[in-house]
Design a protein that fits this description.
Elements: H1 2-66, E1 77-78, H2 93-105, E2 122-130, H3 134-141, E3 153-161, E4 168-177, E5 182-191, H4 198-215, H5 217-224, E6 237-245, H6 247-250, E7 255-263, E8 272-282, E9 285-293, E10 296-298, H7 301-310, E11 356-359, E12 362-365, E13 368-375, E14 379-387, E15 390-405, H8 410-413, E16 416-418, E17 442-450, E18 457-469, E19 475-479, E20 487-491, E21 494-504, E22 507-516, E23 521-529, E24 533-535, E25 544-548, E26 551-554, E27 556-566, E28 574-586, E29 596-606, E30 623-633, E31 639-646, E32 671-675, H9 697-701, E33 711-721, E34 737-745, E35 760-766, E36 769-778, H10 794-800
Parallel strand pairs: 1-11
Antiparallel strand pairs: 2-3, 2-17, 3-4, 4-5, 6-7, 7-8, 8-9, 9-10, 11-12, 12-13, 13-14, 14-15, 15-16, 15-27, 17-18, 18-21, 19-20, 20-35, 21-22, 22-23, 23-34, 24-26, 25-26, 27-33, 28-29, 28-30, 30-31, 31-34, 32-33, 35-36
Cofactor: Cu cation
GO molecular function, one term: primary methylamine oxidase activity
GO cellular component, one term: plasma membrane
């Protein structure tokens, strides 16, 4: 019975479990169906969303494919070398071929080829176009002679003549190009020691390096934790700068220059050490004249070694910097990043293409037209600048860029650089689209005939030409009240800019020529790049600021000189100033009958001679500077003139005729006006750093008449720079810009930009009643038309040809 009972109980349990399992199975099936259903719905939803995204993207792509690339009607851009070069064009490849054949076949010149150049040889240093006399050129440009009588093209050639007992420099003019058969001497008898040749610099540095390694390598290693050696690893020392020492500073008629030593980390010029050597060079003979170490002077390396070992020379120790991306001399991005999201910056486009034309090196923009070139020696030059086809300027050119340093250290004390010694024009290269110039700019190369080649050496991206909106209206007025007319009229400040950037070792100079639609021109120069520093010491504090633990940023004065050959309604011009002064007049509306009013007035003052026209700025005597042709007056009896406005003036405080001041005698004046002479083509020269072969003061001292003559304005710009910590790693451009303007002054009957289609006018449809609707008047193509900007292909181009930016040799 018990067994039966047990069996019956087990059966009941089994039946209950089976039922429970069945219920669970039914529930699991339902759950499974729910999961599958939800999964299918989710997948379908995802697929649907993906499909919608694909459709949207495809529609967007289709829509974008229908949006044209910006361009459309565009100006003709032909930057190729012209088969028939203009009067102002640089030397062509064909002309250089004929020039070299003439030079190397001329037994009188006795020249060697570039591969054979040496200190005891005669060789070509450089050659560039030598422009015909202005009278001849203007006669041709103004169509007074036939095309067959186009002025002949000639080349100026500078020859270093080492193959004689007294080496000298000779400047000759070779003609006619492209098949020359004669030459004439322009200038000769200039001692070769007035220049620093490549052989001088390289030979002296090799000799000095050898001597230092042999005699004081241990001192440098102990003092600066580095060495001058091919096996120096990441602790190398280098002679990184050469400072010419002129005869006025050395007192001897020999070539001398200083080498300064630097720790080669980051950008080396921000890691100076207080060691420099004065060298004297006589052909291949090199002499160490003085040695400077830690503020102490010895006569030789041996004397330094002896004093160092004996303890009579005070030692120093400068740790070698850690060369990583945080090093202050490096221009790698560092610090908390901004903007946070990495948004791209705004940029401008040309929706309807370029509104300027370029053929060769002639640019046409709106009512402007001009030619330009790059002088190897002096830098950018513009010619035959016209507005409405009337010449305003015959020549506008950079003459010299100079910088005078101050300091206790010899490197700063004697550093008076005239950059023509380094060839300003051939120092311009490698403009980067999207940074140096807008990506939509037109980039142009320049070519130079230099000692290292018998052919033209071409540098890419030397000039850029672009139109841009300055962000500043050219003009505007808002008359919001019905009592004043109720209208708005304005015009955006669209300008054309011709730009080049010259890099002279450490400093970069941005040079802009800016053309406004109202007939105004601006010439601007902006400094950026690395400052020259010296090792910090208390004795440097009067000459600069401590900008990092071991360095002083030394005070320096940037100087720039420009030639502006104005031709206002012809070449016979006058120069007047409109002098502003005060006058006392009767106050007729005062209760006191004897009351007076003091106010400003102006008087016109004609500058009769060159000495009268040597202008030095004086706050007590404000004035306008006016150039005009006395035979062309407007309907109100005022001369149709152009005004020169100076906005970057600086005063030269160095004493007259002391040191290197005579080479920069042009900086005694903010502006000087002289009579045009073919013998006074330039205010500076290749030799200015070491000797004032061209003394600008002589241009003025002959004191010729300026009345109804062909006048040239020589304009000086400058800025004193006391470096500060924000100059690390490099000097920024804000606050460093200098400029001058050429402004129409009664030249036109009204503002000529009134004819521009760029203007905008807004006015009520009914006069003085804005409630009935607004007329929005534009004169250009509709703004609602869209276009896609052209892709900036610079990065891809640079990958294929890095020589665009970097020297590959």
């Amino acid at each position: 019975m018990e067994k039966e009972a047990e069996g019956n109980g087990l059966g009941k349990v089994n039946k209950i479990d089976e039922k429970h399992v069945a219920d669970n199975c039914r529930k699991n099936k339902k759950l499974m169906f729910v999961v599958i259903f939800v999964t299918l719905v989710t997948v379908c939803a995802i697929l649907l969303i993906a499909l919608v995204c694909v459709v949207v993207l495809k529609n967007k792509e289709l829509a974008e494919s229908k949006v044209p690339t910006c361009g459309g009607h565009t100006g003709v851009i032909d930057i190729s070398e012209q088969s028939e070069p203009s009067v102002f064009s640089d030397l062509t490849a064909a002309e250089v071929k004929g020039l070299t054949e003439y030079l190397y076949n001329n037994k009188e010149l006795n020249l060697v080829r570039p591969s054979e150049v040496g200190v005891d040889k005669n060789y070509v240093y450089l050659a560039e176009i030598y422009l015909p006399d202005k009278d001849e050129t203007v006669t041709f440009l103004d169509g007074n002679i036939n095309f067959k009588d186009k002025p002949k093209r000639e080349a100026k050639v500078i020859i270093f003549k080492g193959n004689q007992s007294s080496p000298e420099v000779q400047e000759i003019v070779v003609s006619p190009l492209p098949n020359p058969n004669k030459h004439r001497t322009l200038r000769d008898g200039i001692p070769l020691s007035y220049c620093i040749t490549l052989h001088d610099a390289i030979g002296a540095e090799k000799y000095l390096t050898k001597m230092v390694k042999e005699k004081i390598q241990d001192i440098l290693r102990e003092s600066y934790e580095g060495s001058i050696s091919s096996k120096c690893g990441d602790h190398c020392l280098t002679f990184g700068i050469l400072v010419p020492v002129s005869r006025s500073f050395s007192g001897v008629e020999k070539l001398r220059f200083l080498f300064g030593l630097y720790q080669h980390a980051g950008y080396y010029l921000l890691h100076p050490v207080d060691f420099s050597v004065l060298m004297e060079v006589d052909r291949s003979n090199y002499t160490i004249v003085k040695v400077w170490y830690n503020g102490q002077v010895t006569e030789s390396l041996e004397a330094l070694k002896q004093g160092y070992d004996k303890g009579t020379i005070e030692k120093q120790h400068v740790p070698f910097p850690k060369d990583d991306d945080t090093l202050y001399s490096k221009m790698t991005r560092r610090g908390p990043a901004f903007p946070e999201s990495g948004q791209r910056p705004p940029f401008q486009i040309e929706p309807d293409g370029k509104r300027y034309r370029i053929k060769g090196r002639q640019v046409t923009y709106m009512n402007w037209r001009f030619d330009f070139r790059m002088s190897t020696l002096h830098g950018p030059q513009l010619y035959d600048i016209r507005y409405q086809n009337k010449r305003i300027v015959y020549e506008l050119s950079v003459q010299e860029i100079a910088v005078f340093y101050s300091g206790h250290s010899p490197i700063a004390k004697y550093a008076n650089f005239f950059d023509s010694i380094g060839l300003i024009g051939s120092s311009a290269k490698g403009l980067v689209p999207g940074v140096d110039c807008p990506a939509h700019a037109t980039f142009l190369p320049s070519s130079h005939f230099l000692q290292k080649s018998e052919k033209l050496v071409t540098f890419q991206n030397v000039f850029c030409v672009f139109e841009q909106d300055t962000g500043m209206p050219l003009r505007r007025h808002h008359s919001y009240s019905k009592y004043h007319g109720m209208f708005y009229e304005g015009m955006p400040g669209h300008v054309l800019i011709l730009r080049t950037i010259v890099t002279i070792v450490n400093y970069d100079y941005i040079v802009d020529f800016i053309f406004y639609q109202n007939g105004a021109m601006e010439t601007k120069v902006v400094s950026t790049g690395y400052i020259i520093t010296t090792q910090f010491s208390e004795k440097e504090t009067s000459y600069g600021a401590r900008v990092d633990t071991y360095i002083t940023g030394n005070l320096h004065h940037h100087l720039f000189h420009f030639k502006v050959d104005l031709d206002i309604n012809g070449i016979k011009n006058r120069y007047d100033t409109m002098d502003i002064d005060t006058t006392i007049v009767q106050n007729n509306f005062h209760s006191d009958k004897n009351a007076k009013i003091t106010m400003a007035k102006f008087e016109r003052s004609a500058k009769l001679t060159e000495k009268d026209a040597a202008y030095k700025f004086n706050f007590d005597t404000p004035k306008y500077h006016i150039f005009y042709n006395n035979l062309t007056m407007n309907s109100f009896g005022n001369p149709k003139a152009y005004r020169v406005l100076l906005k970057g003036m600086s005063k030269q405080i160095l004493p007259k005729d002391k040191g290197n001041e005579p080479s920069a005698s042009w900086f005694r004046y903010q502006m000087a006006v002289t009579k045009h002479k073919e013998t006074e083509r330039s205010s500076s020269s290749l030799y200015s750093t070491l000797e004032s072969v061209v003394n600008f003061q002589t241009f003025i001292d002959d004191n010729e008449s300026l009345m109804d003559e062909d006048l040239v304005a020589w304009i000086s710009l400058g800025i004193q720079h006391i470096p500060h910590t924000e100059d690390l790693p490099v000097t920024h451009t804000p606050g460093m810009d200098l400029s001058f303007f050429l402004l129409p002054y009664n030249y036109f009957p009204e503002d000529p930009s009134m004819a521009s289609r760029d203007s905008v006018r807004i006015e009520p449809k009914m006069k003085n009643n804005a409630n009935v609707g607004i007329n929005f008047i534009r004169h250009s193509k509709p703004r609602y038309k869209r276009c896609l900007p052209k892709k900036n292909m610079y990065q891809e181009l640079l990958q294929k040809n890095p020589g665009i930016l970097f020297d590959l040799k």
